[in-house]
Amino acid sequence: AWELYLKMDTSHESFTLLQLIANDAYKVGTFYYAAKAFDVLERLDPTPEYWDGKRGACIGVFQQVIAGQEPAESLRDVISMLRNSNNDQVDAITGVMTKWARQNGMKLA
Asked: How confident is the model at residue 108 (pLDDT cuts 50, 70, 90)?
């Protein structure tokens, strides 16, 4: 579904597909793609609902990285996504993620 979205022109249909990807990916625990979709949605329409989805999905990716279910590169991506948000919670969330990464020998740069 994400590949289909990337091939679409910007339109009402692409926005609707993004919402579908974000919500369905979140529901089934595919947090990386949910985070990517919520990130785009938040940039297009900075509502609290999209921030909440993005934050939850990014934390879900973090949990999956810790459990070895998601590669370290995914953590780098979600930290970058979070840092692109204008929300006062970003520093606290990314601080926990980067501290864990350092403590576990993971390079984020």
From this structure: confident
Give the mean model confidence (pLDDT) for residues 63-86. 95
Q: In the prediction, which pLDDT does 4 show? A: 65
Answer for the pair 47, 22: CB distance below 8 angstroms, yes or no: no
Contacts of 15 (CB under 8 A, 6+ apart): 41, 44
Contacts with 26 (C-beta within 8 Å, 6 or more apart), sequence order: 34, 38, 53, 56, 57, 60
- Under 8 Å between Cβ of 19 and 42: no
Q: What is the pTM of this model?
A: 0.88
Cα gap 39→64, rounded to integer Å = 18
Residue 18 contacts residue 40 (beta carbons within 8 Å): yes
